[in-house]
Every structure is written in structure tokens, then in C-alpha cells.
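#struct-help
A.M.: can someone run this one for me? Single chain, 450 residues.
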Amino acid sequence: MNNEIIIVKNKDKNFLVNLKNINFYSLNKNQENFKFQPIKNCCLKTIKCGSNCICKNFRIKNNNCFCENIAGNINKQGVTGATGPTGATGPTGATGPTGATGPTGTSIANIEVGSTITIPAGENARVEQNNIGETAVLSFFIPAGVTGMTGSTGPTGATGITGSTGATGPTGATGITGATGPTGEIGATGATGIAGVTGATGATGATGATGPAGNTVFNPYNIYVRSNTVGGNGTQNNPFPTLNDALDVVANNGTIEVYDGVYPVDESINLNKNNITIKGKPNALIYLTSNVVPLLISGSGNTVEGLTFTSDIAYPIEFIQIGGDNNIIRNNIIYGPAQSGSSDTWVTNRGIVTQGGSTNNWIDGNIIYSLRQAGYLNPNSTGYITHNVVFNTRGWVVDGALYQFSGNSWGEPENAVDIALLSGTTSGIPYNSITDLQNNNSDATISDQR
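D.P.: on it. C-alpha cells below:
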């Protein structure tokens, strides 16, 4: 059932329809719609319908307004008499006591004529003002009803977009240091470094007890050499001052022992005998002072070990040249004086050179550095190069020779090349696998020019 509150439009002025006392409580519990609509040519009348009467519609009949649905008869309105004179204003009456504040109503402002609003059942409502039938304000009071049962919780809404990451918080306190882990395996021994500058000579110690008397009898199989001696016969008590003196008298299969000291060389030491061993004591230094080969080995089966070779300046020559067969160069130190610039501009000084055709020579355990080349191996020479340490050179140069390289290593500063295989060198054994050559020699850098 729809109940209508009629907004009556008067063409000359605004008006008020007071429906405050209309009882809508008898309506059903559902909300009802109240439609505001203009009615033309209607006047404003006060209709007394009784306490249970609802005046639903005002209608025009014979130029009079009446309530269309009231109970009982309504007399027709008579002709309006002339307005009497205005009486004198009476004295203002005493102000009555302030009434109790009523419950706050709810207003809906500016309701368009012809619009429909919804008012819950059981409310009181009134139209307070309308602007010539176009808009109206509807006020109504909603008594507090019994609170209904809480409805079921609705589904959780979709998760919102994740906010930006906040600023990094302060660093927490350092935790307790954990237990020390087990000691790792010992790493491989590094290459021997460059020899440092010789320190100042310490004070001379006390003279030791006199040792047992040396050999005073000459023995061609055991010859001794000591620098800065004069004369001498090669015995332990009276050594020769130079290696050439010793080589002149040593017998094949004999041994020459070289005591520590500096042995200047300005002419070649010629080892032209067979099966001779030259054994240097620590700090026995062969010191080249001229552009000659310090040690030339033309014999076979000889061994040179424990000596140190160097020079006052860089000479374009090798320190050891091997011409014979089955010779061993072992545990020596060979180095040149420092040269500036790139190594490819250095004077071509070399540690060891093998003559073409010399065979089965063994170069083992030497330390060679600061030279243009560690060694130059001429065509058709053969042998073994093992366990040497080479650095700050341009490496071993193989020119048609057949040498087995194994166990060699490379220090710092690095060589420009560790092993160079020149054009004309065989592509077969022992150089058929560059990978094996590298792996067998501490990951050597190979320059393959074949």
C-alpha cells in the first residue's frame, strides 16, 4: 500500500502542510514510499477528520477543496466574508516554561517535486517548506527500535596493494662469535721469490776451534777451489784460486768442490773432460765481467750443481752452454742484472743454451730469472727439463729440439711466455698435446708457432 503526501502548489505564495500528527504506525512493517507531486489549482485547507482519519488526497470541486477519503460528511465551505478591522494587539503573555527537548529529527533537504523517498514504517513525518511546489524539506523522527540480530560477517575483502618497503631499521647488535672451524688443508708451496738485497755483514764472530788437519796430499779425483787464494795445489789445505786451475788437473770421474766466495770470470771456464762433478758450496758465486760464456761444457757425463751465476751488466750471451751429451745441470741459481722496459727489448742474455745435436742432457731443479730467455734449445738437441722455477723472462725457447718438460713452475713477475715452440719444431711427441704440456708444467703459458 502506498500512501501519498501531497504538496499543494499555490501560485502566489509558499505554504505549509502539517502532517506531524498523522499516524503511520498502522502501516505494515515494510518501508513505504511517499511521493511528492504537484497538484494544480488546489487550495490549502485544514481538514479535521477525527483521530483515526487519514486525509489522503485534496481535490477541487466547485472551486472548493475537500478531503476525498475522510469518514463522515464535510459541509461545503461558504462564501468568505469581508475581512474585519484588525484589533489592537494585546499585551504579550508571560513566557511559558520551556518544554522538554524532543528527539532530534532527521531532515532530507531539497526534495524535488515528483521525487519518491522511503520512510520506514512507524515514523512521524512532516513537510516543512516548499518553494512554489518545486522542492520540499521532509523531516521525520525514527524511534529507536529493538536492535536486530547481528548479521553474519561478510566475506573478507580482497587484499590491498602492498605498501612500499619501509626504511631499513637500525643494524642489530653483533651476535656471539661462532666456534672456530677446523683448520683447512695446507696449500701448495708458492714459487720462490726474488732474492732480497744482501744485508750488511755482521760482526766477525769468535774464532772457532781449529779443525782437523785437511788433506795435504794432492788427489786428482778430489780438487778444491777457494777464491782469493794465491797459488795453491788443489788440496783441501791449499785450494786452487780458480775453476780453470782445477779443471786442468782433475781426472775423469773426479770432483771439484768450490768454496763460498766470489769468482770473477772474464774468460770461459771450459769443462772439456768427462764425468766430472763441479759442486758449489752455498754462496759460491760465478760473477761474469766480460762478454764470454762463463761455463762451456764440451765433455759428456758431467754434473754442475750448487753454483750461482750472474753478471755485472747484461751481456748478449748465455751463462751455461752445453755441447756434449748426458750432462746434468742441477740446483743452480742463474739470474741477470735488472733491465728496464719491456722484456722484448732486453739484451738477449740467457740462462742455458744447448748446442745442436747434443743429446740426453738433463736440466733439473734450477732457479732462473731476470733474463731475456731461460734457455734456448737448438735443433736436434734432446733431453729433459724438470722441476725448474722460472720467472721474469720470455721463457724456454724450443727451436726444433726434443725435450721432455715436466714439473716446472713459474714465479712472479710472470714470464711473457713460459714455453715457446718455434716453427720447425715437431708436432709429435713430446709436443703433440698442448693441453698435456700445460697441465704437466703448472698451467704453463704456451706460444705455439709451429
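A.M.: thanks! Confidence is low (pLDDT under 50) at residues 1-60, 63-77, 121-145.
D.P.: also worth noting: The two ends are 113 Å apart (CA to CA).
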